[in-house]
UniProtKB/TrEMBL annotation:
This is DNA-binding NarL/FixJ family response regulator. Residues 10-127 form the Response regulatory domain. Pfam families: GerE, Response_reg. CDD domains: LuxR_C_like, REC_NarL-like. It comes from Nesterenkonia xinjiangensis. The modification 4-aspartylphosphate is found at residue 61. Residues 154-219 form the HTH luxR-type domain. Keywords: DNA-binding, Phosphoprotein, Transcription, Transcription regulation. GO terms for molecular function: DNA binding. Signal peptide: none annotated. GO terms for biological process: phosphorelay signal transduction system; regulation of DNA-templated transcription.
Length: 225
């Protein structure tokens, strides 16, 4: 429940199925701390829609006609200023667009068969600036990078990081929360937050989801470790 001074999280729903849009809108609008500011059936003209509705979070279907969710995400991420967070929705736990969507700016990924509680939680997590990946998507992500030849790993990406920042990045990629990382590395939680912020700045990343992607792309973290 939001405080008297806090505003509800503004959500834009983009999906080509009217039943999905209506269902999600009803569910989210029923939450006191969430409000649906608009819906769209396609990614066409998405930049104008975002400017008009000013959402904090965009619930984006990945598979749509004309302009799909991947291209729409790319367009939103390139908007000047601070673009909204994007939570991708799919019916496939091994969607081939998953990795590209994360690379171009998506903050999270959730399957459409998620429970109402999982969906509302995901919107809140992404709105707070955290990353959100369903367990199935995370497993697929790890398997994909694990199968790549080591010669293709982008080790140069981490050249500017300190040893401590690499440790923190490794823990983030393994799904640890800041409080867990603080306990494992014997650091204050605020210190962990500072390290995460520096990693994002040095690597020009938007959020923790992209830290996970970069950790696997660079070879810093590998499946089974």
């Amino acid at each position: 429940m939001p405080s008297e001074t806090s505003a509800a999280v503004r959500v834009l729903i983009v999906d080509d199925q009217s039943m999905i849009r209506a269902g999600f809108a009803a569910l989210l609008d029923a939450q006191e701390d969430l409000t649906v500011v608009g819906t769209a059936e396609d990614g066409q003209g998405i930049v104008d829609v975002v400017r008009q509705t000013r959402p904090d979070v965009v619930l984006m279907d990945i598979r749509m006609p004309l302009v799909n969710g991947l291209e729409a995400t790319r367009l939103i991420a390139q908007m000047p200023g601070t673009p909204p967070r994007i939570l991708m929705l799919t019916t496939f736990d091994a969607d081939e667009y998953v990795f590209d969507a994360l690379r171009v700016g998506a903050s999270g990924f959730l399957l459409k068969d998620a429970t109402p509680e999982e969906l509302t939680h995901a919107v809140r997590v992404v709105a707070a600036g955290e990353a959100l990946l369903s367990p199935k998507v995370t497993r697929t992500l790890i398997a994909d990078y694990a199968a790549r030849p080591s010669s293709k790993r982008k080790t140069h990406l981490l050249a500017d990081l300190t040893d401590r920042e690499r440790e923190v990045m490794t823990a983030v990629a393994r799904g640890r929360a800041n409080s867990e990382i603080a306990g494992e590395l014997h650091l204050a939680e605020q210190t962990v937050k500072t390290h995460v912020s520096r990693i994002l700045t040095k690597l020009s990343l938007r959020d923790r989801t992209q830290i996970v992607v970069t950790a696997y792309e660079s070879g810093l973290v590998r499946a089974g470790e």
